[in-house]
Write a structure and sequence with these properties.
- It is a single chain.
- The protein is α/β, with parallel strands linked by helices and 222 residues long.
- The chain has a domain of 154 residues: DHBP synthase (Alpha-Beta Complex), CATH 3.90.870.10.
- Helices cover 31% and strands 18% of the residues.
- Strand 10 and strand 11 form a beta hairpin.
- It is globular and about 45 Å long.
- The N and C termini lie far apart (52 Å).
Length: 222
């Protein structure tokens, strides 16, 4: 298991190495604008299966991804006027949008479902990471399913290995290929999740953005 300490003054080497690991089908533990996330090629069945295994998450619970911008999202989803409005009016990184996926896509996080869920993070490393990789990256929080996400690498690895830190390397080396260590991340609310795939918008989770703010932004569309 490789560890790279993220340098704010020059994230280029970390970005390049993380993208390389994803292209090889690996898993990266990396900092986002909310928590640490587990990153893999979001359209790879094998890579996504690794994420489910690490988290102990049931495969009937969809994973979402990060993308660099709406243009990238549009390669995989039908970006509606409502989606563009929310992306423009609401703070970047604080809303996850669920849209109908593009025809012909049926691998990775969109396998067997009709939708593609994504957000555009407010984080320079994440944006550079998605650009370098060239596609969507899984962004699920780095925690065991049902347990509280931790905010530093040591605590995260303890939780994921279900054992003392001294045993982490042995237990997780075959699962997490690269760690991008940015120190302890601040405690923040998760994104608000808005499903725009149906006839009417549905707020699946109220998080960093209040439901009222979502509805107000959508009403401005009229």
């Amino acid at each position: 298991m490789e560890v790279i300490r993220l340098q704010k003054s020059d994230s280029g080497p970390a970005v390049a190495r993380a993208a390389e690991v994803l292209r090889a089908g690996g898993v990266v533990l990396y900092p986002t604008d909310t928590l640490y996330g587990l990153g893999a090629d979001a359209l790879s069945d094998e890579a996504v299966a690794k994420i489910y295994a690490i988290k102990g998450r049931h495969e009937n619970k969809p994973l979402h991804a990060i993308v660099a911008d709406l243009e990238m999202a549009g390669r995989y989803a039908d970006v509606t006027d409502s989606a563009r409005l929310l992306a423009m009016r609401l703070p970047q990184g604080q809303v996850t949008l669920i849209l109908n996926k593009r025809p012909g896509l049926d691998t990775g996080i969109v396998k067997g479902i009709a939708t593609f869920g994504f957000r555009i993070p407010d984080n320079e490393f994440c944006i550079a990471f998605t650009h370098a990789f060239g596609g969507p990256i899984t962004a699920t929080s780095a925690n065991r399913a049902g347990e509280k996400p931790e905010r530093n690498i040591e605590a995260i690895l303890q939780q994921l290995s279900c054992g003392p830190y001294s045993n982490v390397l042995q237990k997780t080396a075959i699962r997490v290929d690269l760690i991008i260590d940015a120190g302890e991340v601040p405690e923040r609310q998760p994104s608000t999740v808005v499903d725009l795939s149906g006839a009417e918008p549905i707020i699946l989770r109220e998080g960093a953005i209040a439901a009222a703010d979502v509805w107000n932004a959508l009403r401005d569309e009229d």
